[in-house]
Amino acid sequence: MDKRRRIGEVNSEPGIGGREARAGFCSRTTGQRSAYAIVAFFMVALGGCGLMEKSEPPEQEPPPAEPAPVVEPEPEPIVVADLSTVMNYLELGEPDRALEMIGRLSEESPNSQVLARLLRQIEMPIDQLLPGPYRQIEVGPGESLSLIAARELGDPLMFYALARLNGIDVPSRIPVGTVLRIPELPDPPTAETPEANSIESPTRISTPEIESVAEYLARSGQVEQARHMLIGRLEDAATPESTHELLVGLTLERASQLRAEGAYDQATSVIDRALSVVDFPEPRARLRLARSATRSQMFVEAAQSLRERGELVPAYEMAINATRLDFASTDADQLVTELRQQVVDELHNQALLAWRDRNVDLAIRTWESLLAVVPGFEPASVYLERARRLRQRLGEP
Question: b vs e for 8-39, b when ≥16 Cβ sit within 10 Å of the residue's Cβ?
Fold first, then answer.
């Protein structure tokens, strides 16, 4: 009983014993809490580091390299089987390819005189094709083997035979100054026998061949010979519009060259010759426009010459004619504007001087001349009316 009492007293007595017991419990609890706090701190710290480590983005792997683009081989160019291709092969020194093309074309045109002539140049022994004796000439600036063959042999298509005779592998590449052997002909070609006419009779050559040969002649610097050949065909037989177009293109090219040289009359004649054989409306319209532009440019230069000599009125009238021929000519329009101002300034000033000097007749004549040329110049009309009234008051006729 005493034991239970002591225990009860200890537990129930709010004295020192009970406070000490509670204090000991609290002190133990605080220490444990501190330990727990330290442990928790390190765990949080470690956990935070782990989280930080985990939160860092992983190293990015380099993106996979793009596959290299597939380079497809360029398609083989389409080779058109025509006479122009054969001549291109020969110009480039490729007789085997030319022979293959001639064989294909001969199946379609077994009687082609042009193909036969080209074939002989490839296969026939050169000393039989171009026998001696020979003389020497030198290649000049702007000359081709075709041009030389036309001039010396009377046939521009003999360029490949001439190349073989002189050991030239690529006929299209012949430097200026090259010395060539040329056969001595008993009857050399002359100016009276145009080179283009030597390619057999135009009526014996098909239209596609005529066009191909003409294009080749133009490429080799023989535009006039090409034009003569086409004109001959248009005069002798009905031809498709393509032949007319080809002649017009070559004619305009030639006329442009002549205009650049100042040979306007000759350029006009070249156009007129083509107009005499071209029948289709659109090609004819192009030729007529070119003719008007040529004449207009000629008038512009004539007006400029008159202007330099001080003949302003004739120059102005010539410039107006130039604009009427070619409405699109900016040179003619500008010249008209400049000359109009010059004519007005000169004649109006002359009339004013005469008016101030009381030379009424001279003033009237000068203003009348000005208005005849520039009808819309209002100040001249006003002054002329005053001068006429004054002359009437003075009783002059």
Answer: eeeeeeeeeeeeeeeeeeeeeeeeeeeeeeee
CA 54 to mean position of chain CA atoms? 67
CA proximity to 325, closest of 350, 291, 274: 291
Going by C-alpha positions, the residue among 148, 155, 153, 154 that lies closest to residue 178 is 148
Instruction: Quote the pLDDT of residue 6.
Output: 45
The DSSP code for 191 is T
Asked if 306 and 319 touch (Cβ cutoff 8 Å), the reply is: no
Pure H helices in 64-112: 83-91, 95-108
Structure-token pair, residue 392: 């009437």
Q: Is the pTM here over 0.90, yes or no?
A: no
For residue 80, what is the DSSP state?
P
User: DSSP states of 297-310 as a string?
Assistant: HHHHHHHHHHHHTT
- Mean pLDDT, rounded, for 148-153: 89
Measuring CA to CA, how many Å separate 316 from each of 107, 325, 330, 351, 381? Answer: 65, 15, 15, 19, 20
Helices (H), the chain: 2-12, 16-55, 83-91, 95-108, 113-123, 126-129, 145-153, 159-165, 207-219, 223-236, 241-260, 264-275, 281-308, 312-325, 330-356, 360-373, 378-393
**Does residue 23 have a pLDDT over 50?**
no
- pLDDT at 17 exceeding the cut of 60: no
Tell whether the model's pLDDT for residue 96 goes beyond 90: yes
The first and second tokens of residue 150, run together, are 């036309």
